[in-house]
Write a structure and sequence with these properties.
With 544 residues, this protein is α+β, with helices and mostly antiparallel strands. The chain is 32% helix and 22% strand. Helix 11 (305-314) runs antiparallel to helix 13 (359-368), helix 12 (317-324) runs antiparallel to helix 15 and helix 18 (473-483) runs antiparallel to helix 19 (489-505). The model is unreliable at 1-20 and 22-40 (pLDDT under 50).
Length: 544
């Protein structure tokens, strides 16, 4: 089982694509002037400048939920048993030096690296036990911990994890759950403070947070005792730049050294400024439309299967790609791109239903739902299209396009775009009509569990299990559980294809488009690997 799982994890991401800006992943050195300036400066005194779109939520990895924050806390500051390198094969052993799996797939014996925390304490099995038990108390990590029966310390460097049932997607758990210094965490709490509200040295990562300000940003300092070797770049300053246009100007002016998730509307300008030092990478992400079939709006109009089908056929995905991704994105039919996830159902196989833009079918669906031509001409109220973020960002633009698509097909919808902190709790509580949601960074198809299994908490937008549910939710959950009970790639692919076919038949989740990830860097640095989501500052070096 271990060999098969390891082979899958190594191969999953080798098909990822990188295009544009010379197609390379290593930056060349800069101009003669920049070389001379670099040579004159002491590398230890140089500062790497980065952007934060919003203030860092917390210095605790478990309290950070958006990608910008996780890129700091999940990679630079904290580490898990496994790491993530999207360019070079996905999951890899990090704090776990070795993992042995029992024949029945229920017991994992984990030998730890000789690592230390940033406070100097050695990493021990007790720290791992503490961290996993903390994670199990947090509902949003239920989908990656619910199968764990217990985690025990056999000795200082050996952890024994016992599962309730075989779980082939456990690599994502080993990546997702980060390890705290038990001593430091408990000391912070004992002092009457909430962990994560201040800088700390409770991670094993190559950087620790030395300064943390909700308004100005975050400063990272290299941990010189890092078990993987001291980082080349010693100081990293993250500056809060909320407006994309301001971030573009900052990069063009040389105020940012690494600019990830470049706004695609400005890609041409950033590409011109970066020269060869940029990449437009295919992202492992999804923007999808969810319909709450339980919504009471307009006499539960969305509970009508034909109305939901009309909405699906009315959506012009090509127009969404043009508007939301500046034509750089790709139309989506799968929850996870099959290029990144080996067990992801592929539209090429034709084994699940798809919905392409077809105004005539949308019109007929409304007639089949019992509406008259007069009612369709007047516009049928289907509620509000809800999303989060900026109105000018891709999801905000998508709401406007879909609103227009629905209007053309004889349906009226309002648009509401607001802060994620206000919107996502409503989505998770099924307090919406139509939602546009985003997910990213998934490297095992079991992550679909977040959207379809009733035990999931956090990203569960459509409540398939309900007393009013017309869906076979038991079959859905059975397939989710079945998918992680085997490590055989072909078996898992077949199981997940059947699962996705059922979901598409419910007409509740419609994949819209995949976003590319634009990344650019200054001539001050070279970059070993360009990862679309989880970059590693240890891959960055000052240009010679």
């Amino acid at each position: 089982m271990k060999k098969v799982l390891s082979l899958l994890l190594v191969c999953v991401l080798l098909l990822s694509l990188t295009v544009g800006c010379g197609g390379g992943s290593t930056a060349s050195s800069g101009s003669a002037d920049s070389k001379e300036a670099g040579a004159a400066a002491d590398p230890a005194e140089k500062v790497l400048h980065m952007r934060l779109a919003k203030p860092l939520q917390a210095t605790d990895w478990a309290a950070t939920t958006n990608t910008f924050d996780m890129q700091i806390t999940w990679v630079q500051v904290f580490e898990g048993l496994y790491g993530m390198d999207e360019v070079n094969g996905g999951y890899y052993n990090l704090l776990a030096k070795d993992i042995q799996v029992s024949e029945d797939g229920l017991t994992y014996t984990i030998t730890l690296q000789d690592a230390t925390f940033q406070n100097g304490d050695p990493l021990t099995a007790e720290d791992v036990v503490f961290s996993y038990n903390k994670a199990k108390e947090i509902s949003r990590f239920n989908y990656v911990t619910s199968f764990i029966n217990k985690v025990e310390a056999k000795d200082d460097k050996t952890v024994v994890m016992t599962l309730d049932y075989p779980y082939s997607a456990i690599a994502h758990t080993f990546w997702s759950i980060k390890i705290y210094s038990k001593r430091e965490y408990e000391e912070v709490v004992a002092a009457g403070k909430e962990f994560g509200t201040e800088p700390h040295t409770a991670g094993t990562g190559p950087y620790y947070i030395s300064d943390y300000d909700l308004s100005s940003g975050v400063t990272l300092k290299a941990y010189e005792g890092y078990w993987g070797g001291a980082p080349d770049i010693k100081t990293v300053e993250y500056r809060v730049i909320s407006e994309d246009s301001a971030a573009v100007i900052a990069f063009e002016n040389g105020e940012l050294d690494y600019f990830n998730e470049v706004p695609l509307s400005d890609w041409n300008n950033v590409e011109a400024a970066a020269g060869d030092n940029c990449s437009l990478v295919k992202g492992n992400n999804i923007r999808f439309l969810a319909i709450n079939y339980l919504s009471p709006t307009n006499n539960n109009i969305l509970g009508n299967q034909k109305v939901r089908e009309a909405i699906f056929y009315a959506v012009n995905k090509d127009a969404l790609v043009a508007s939301s991704t500046s034509k750089y994105g790709q139309v989506a039919y799968e929850y996870m791109p099959s290029e990144y996830v080996a067990t992801s159902p592929s539209v090429k196989d034709g084994k699940f239903k798809t919905y392409d833009y077809d105004p005539d079918k949308a019109h007929q669906c409304l007639l089949d739902a019992g509406f008259t031509e007069e009612e369709i001409a007047a516009g049928i109220d289907v509620g509000t299209i809800l999303t989060y973020g900026e109105a000018t960002a891709d999801k905000g633009k998508a709401t406007v396009v879909i609103q227009a698509n629905l209007a053309d097909a004889g349906m009226k919808a309002q648009v509401e775009v607001a802060e994620a902190a206000n919107v996502t709790p409503r989505m998770y509580a099924q307090d919406y009509d139509i939602a546009i949601f985003a997910d990213s960074g998934n490297y095992d198809y079991n992550n679909i569990r977040q959207q379809v299994h009733s035990e999931s908490v956090g990203m569960y937008l459509v409540r398939y299990k309900d007393e009013k549910s017309p869906f076979d939710w038991k079959k859905i959950e059975e397939l989710v559980d079945k998918g992680v009970a085997t490590s055989d790639t072909e078996e898992r692919y077949a199981i997940y294809t059947e699962l996705w076919s059922i979901i598409m038949d419910t007409t509740t989740i419609l994949p819209l488009y995949h976003m590319p990830v634009g990344i650019a860097w200054s001539k001050n640095i070279s970059v070993d690997n360009v990862n679309p989501t989880y970059y590693h500052i240890t891959d960055f070096h000052w240009a010679q």
